[in-house]
């Protein structure tokens, strides 16, 4: 019998030593946070601070463990190591946040991460909702109302990290407006000599599915009044007792007997009395400096909506070329037109032939920009100067070359502004678009630019 007791004692001691070198003895206390180890009474392992795996390696599902060891950052389970446990977003830590590797080769506590879930949202009257990730953290539930209802309050709610929903339940309110129908749009013609017309109609009646009486309001001019020429928008609004709103509108258009709007002549403008184009209006044509009017000076709007006579035109004024000096010739252009002087040593010069071809095609665009082309061709004794085929005196040619230092040895072009000043020189053939761009950006005033935009398609 004594042998049996000794054998039983040996087996118990062996088992205790075996368990002491692994997890030890312990009991789990019923709580929400931690596992409390049972203290060692009969066995204490031999302490070894250099053992890199004194305690088991900690793992935390859906979380992170950060450890600080007395031996340095590369050791995570040596004796004395302290570890901090944190959970991922959407998870809550149950147990101890901080544990330490004990001499018993156990950690001082345990913890785990549990997913946070919000409660199920209730349905709302006349509406529903749809969630992006169910009822987990950061899931967003969007509310939608049935047709005819309008949402009041939060349109969406989000599951927060603490397990609650953001915002509050919305309400789907009745949003059905009353019904109202306006009269048909109408057109009235003013009597001769008048610019207004009297217009009448029956006011509309509104109905509502819930309310017997609906408030109707007129916005704009009322019936049985005189309306001015043009488009007049008449609006009615209807409100039920819940202040739901409906609206309708119609158009009253008054026409005045008028003639077609007159277009100003190129390089000119028009002035009119009365209302410019109504019956009896008188309009007069005027031309810019450097241009002369051809045709009638005035036109009258008649009862059949047509103008008397044909439109007048503004043509370039006739410039004299039989002047004795260059200054006398240029004096005619001062303040009226710009001058583009083209010089070439020979009419067979290739640069001149190319430029001449481009100038001929750009004749309309140059005239639109009030530019007159003056040519100096060849050398004495066969030198020729001309403006639109009309020859210049030899003294005038020599005066132009001397005044503006124009060489006879090579092709060149010189652009003079309306003040007769040398503004730009071209020594190679230049495309018309480039010449136009330079004039538009550097020589035109605001009024000239406005008229150029008005007749931008004139030369097409």
TrEMBL record:
Segments crossing the lipid bilayer: none
Q: Pfam families, from UniProt?
A: DUF4174 (PF13778), HYR (PF02494), Sushi (PF00084)
Annotated protein name in UniProt: Sushi repeat-containing protein SRPX2
State the UniProt keywords alphabetically. Answer: Angiogenesis, Cell adhesion, Cytoplasm, Disulfide bond, Repeat, Secreted, Signal, Sushi, Synapse
| Record GO biological process | angiogenesis; cell-cell adhesion; positive regulation of cell migration involved in sprouting angiogenesis; positive regulation of synapse assembly
Disulfide bond residue pairs: 145-172, 287-314
**Residue ranges constituting the HYR domain according to the UniProt record:** 173-256
Residue ranges occupied by any Sushi domain in the UniProt entry: 65-115, 116-174, 257-316
What compartments host this protein?
A: Cell surface; Cytoplasm; Secreted; Synapse
Choose one Gene Ontology CC annotation of this protein and give it: synapse
Would you indicate the residue range of the signal peptide? Answer: 1-20
- State a single Gene Ontology molecular function: signaling receptor binding
Chief place of localization: other
